[in-house]
Amino acid sequence: MPLYAYQCDSCSQGFEALVRPNRSPEPTECKHCGKATIRKVPTTFALAHSELDALRALDPMYKRMVEDQMAQTPEAEPMRHLAKMTPFDVVDDPGDPIDF
Ligand SMILES: [Zn+2]
Question: For residue 34, what pLDDT is reported?
């Protein structure tokens, strides 16, 4: 008893139908608007399953890619603030000393 999913091109609504030979034939009209502009689409279950598998296969590679990119950002360098500072002996006027 295959369960098929259908998508209507007129009202863009989706619905599912249980198709059994001789007993409940495939629908030819949209359940929502009644027009014959429906087409069969992969069922949500099959689609979700394959996408999940693809995501799982992608995950370790994706995580490494993100970590590589993060390591190249300025924020990844802990001493980045020091690199932006100008040493006192280089500037003409270092200013008054800060009284903490
Ligand atoms: Zn429709």
Answer: 95
